[in-house]
Amino acid sequence: MCSGSFAKCLGITLIPLSLACVLCNILLFFPGGTSVDSENITDEVWYFGGILGSGVLMIFPALVFLGLKNNDCCGCCGNESCGRRFAMLSSLLFAAVGVLGGGYSVIISVLAINYGPRCLVVIEGTEQWGTPFLDGSYLSNTSLWSECLKPDGVVSWHLSLFSVLLVMGVIQVALCAVQVVNGLLGALCGDCCSIFMCVGFCLGDLV
């Protein structure tokens, strides 16, 4: 497969993943599917891992990857192949942005899963909002989930959505990392060139 066509496939895959991440982050503003005061929303939700990291920052590389197949960069001294190689090389920068965005989302998701949700708990006989699972113990002991009185189902809501963000963030990082390799191959060996052809071509140049 040509490196430009492969990049387009990556871009097509990244867009729905980005939209899904944005949706997950938005849903996290409604813990348990209910509306609560902004100060009672888990801190990690406000870091916008899904909206900014896996969403906005991922849209840019996705759009660039989509256009690589037909982008000759206006040629290069009249050489279309040279122009396409430059376009593939420039895609590395956007791939790096995607890795950073997806990595940011992954880190926020890991922290959020470890700390657990913010909910209404009983502390010294008084109901108040807090984060009772900062040590991550609730992950291995589901009986602790009942400590969250409200919103209903907030623990499973929090854990499920951040787990989805974590998995999709890892996938996005992997896809952008693949494009780094694909972009290098496209820049070194041209747009339509298999990995074996590219290795042979590069070895031939070295010899």
TrEMBL record:
Regions that span the bilayer: 12-33, 45-68, 89-113, 155-178, 185-206
Bilayer disposition of the protein: Multi-pass membrane protein
Annotated keywords: Membrane, Transmembrane, Transmembrane helix
GO cellular component, one term: membrane
Keyword check for Metal-binding: no
One Pfam family here: L6_membrane
Intracellular or extracellular location(s): Membrane
Chief location bin: membrane
Family affiliation: Belongs to the L6 tetraspanin family.
Name of protein: Transmembrane 4 L six family member 4
